[in-house]
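User: Just a sanity check before I run the rest of the batch. Below are the structure tokens for the first item. I only need the designed sequence back.
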């Protein structure tokens, strides 16, 4: 049993909070999964419980001077790009220049399970140290003849070693459609053979499928990956309406990406669309009527100049919106809270302002809804006990009247003091429990230097 005690404030979800006056503590213990969890024990052996029934040895986590929030869920990352940050020629360029520059860098280094492991260790560790307890890794780079099951397994093992949850998305970017589908099926068979909804029994690993977008993948790829998803109960994810996506769709098919996705059967409740820059009112209404979910990635789209999703309009239409960082090739940090701050700051340029609580909820429960994970992204009873303890006792938070607004508005680049995933402490006093972050960084640096030599 783990007791998080003496918190100054606890954010349970978008509408429920507790302050120091009303027993600001949380108890984590053996639990039954939430009744609507995707598999009977998806929340793992531990979750948030009523303190009355909790028994067994007790571990304490001091949260005095701290705000506790649900663990953040990064709904869109490309972990491999953690090895390819700030590359010359990748900043301030249009997407049609950026894509081949990144592809050349991947080819120079060589993408294989060893690099996937080193990048994922760095990317997942960086996320955990910033409060990201679940990350969706949209892996798009599968060189011909590569060991695709090995790449997926190496990424999954890296996350598991660190204690972070991973949703691995078997992506495609101009892959042969049949090969992409066969690979997705092989990965499912190897990693989650019997898992309903593609989620492992302990809830730590999830498999999904996702072409990069209509600009890169054909109707056949969408159809065949969709068939694997339907057969195996996997979620579907893709990217839509980033800069080149609309232009290429118009040029190639005479239609906009959303219209193509509708034709290809990819507007449905099991689909999450990342980016969604410059969607029209009619497109927003269509997305809402089809029950899709969305992911906002301002930390990538804004600095690259690729657009801003009209988040307030998407939410007003009833579309659940999550938050993602996208990858290191376009957003050099996997710091989701920093991007939550950016989302809040940029919102008035793309519609009405959005308040801090709503943005925080997008970065946790909003993202979890898109992954089909009702046990994640909140701290209600039965939740999987993924949480962050943020110290707000320093000068950067002095004078803050609203502790939740302050989490986002004050102290840019804030990191959590402690992070708990599934009831296990994985970051304690700002350091990883399972690995030395400096060793992970130097392993990746050495690997890259060896391959460039
Ligand atoms: Zn992306």
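Assistant: Here's the designed sequence for the first item:
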């Amino acid at each position: 049993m783990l007791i998080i005690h003496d918190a100054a404030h606890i954010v349970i979800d978008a509408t429920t909070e507790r302050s120091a006056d009303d027993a600001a503590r949380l108890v984590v213990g053996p639990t039954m999964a939430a009744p609507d969890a995707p598999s009977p024990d998806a929340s793992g052996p531990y979750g948030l419980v009523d303190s009355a029934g909790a028994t067994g040895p007790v571990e304490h986590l001091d949260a005095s001077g701290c705000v506790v929030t649900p663990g953040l869920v990064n709904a869109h990352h490309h972990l491999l790009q953690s090895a390819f940050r700030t590359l010359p020629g990748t900043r301030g360029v249009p997407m049609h220049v950026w894509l081949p520059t990144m592809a050349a860098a991947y080819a120079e280094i060589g993408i294989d399970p060893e690099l996937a492991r080193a990048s994922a260790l760095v990317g997942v560790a960086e996320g955990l140290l910033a409060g990201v307890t679940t990350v969706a890794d949209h892996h798009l780079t599968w060189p011909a003849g590569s060991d695709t099951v090995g790449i997926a397994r190496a990424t999954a093992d890296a996350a598991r070693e660190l204690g972070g949850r991973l949703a691995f998305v078997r992506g495609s970017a101009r892959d042969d459609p049949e090969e992409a589908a066969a690979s997705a099926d092989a990965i499912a068979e190897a990693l989650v053979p019997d898992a309903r909804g593609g989620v492992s029994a302990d809830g730590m690993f999830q498999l999904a499928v996702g072409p990069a977008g209509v600009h890169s993948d054909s109707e056949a790829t969408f159809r065949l990956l969709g068939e694997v998803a339907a057969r195996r109960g996997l979620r579907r994810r893709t990217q839509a309406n980033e800069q080149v996506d609309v232009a290429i769709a118009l040029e190639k098919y005479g239609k906009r990406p959303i219209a193509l996705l509708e034709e290809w059967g990819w507007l449905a409740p099991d689909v999450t669309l990342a980016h969604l820059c410059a969607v029209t009112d009619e497109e927003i209404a269509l997305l809402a009527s089809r029950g899709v979910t969305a992911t906002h990635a301002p930390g990538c789209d804004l600095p690259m100049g690729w657009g801003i999703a009209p988040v307030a309009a998407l939410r007003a239409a009833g579309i659940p919106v999550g938050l993602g960082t996208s990858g290191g090739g376009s957003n050099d940090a996997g710091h989701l809270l920093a991007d939550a701050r950016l989302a809040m700051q940029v919102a008035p340029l793309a519609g009405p302002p959005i308040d801090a609580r709503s943005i925080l909820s997008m970065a946790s429960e909003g993202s979890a809804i898109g992954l089909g994970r009702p046990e994640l992204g909140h701290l209600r009873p039965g939740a999987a006990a993924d949480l962050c303890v943020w110290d707000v006792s320093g000068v950067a938070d002095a004078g803050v009247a609203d502790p939740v607004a302050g989490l986002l508005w004050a102290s840019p680049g804030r990191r959590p003091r402690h992070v708990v995933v599934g009831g296990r402490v994985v970051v304690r006093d700002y350091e990883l429990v399972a690995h030395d972050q400096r060793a992970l960084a130097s392993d990746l640096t050495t690997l890259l230097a060896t391959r460039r030599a």
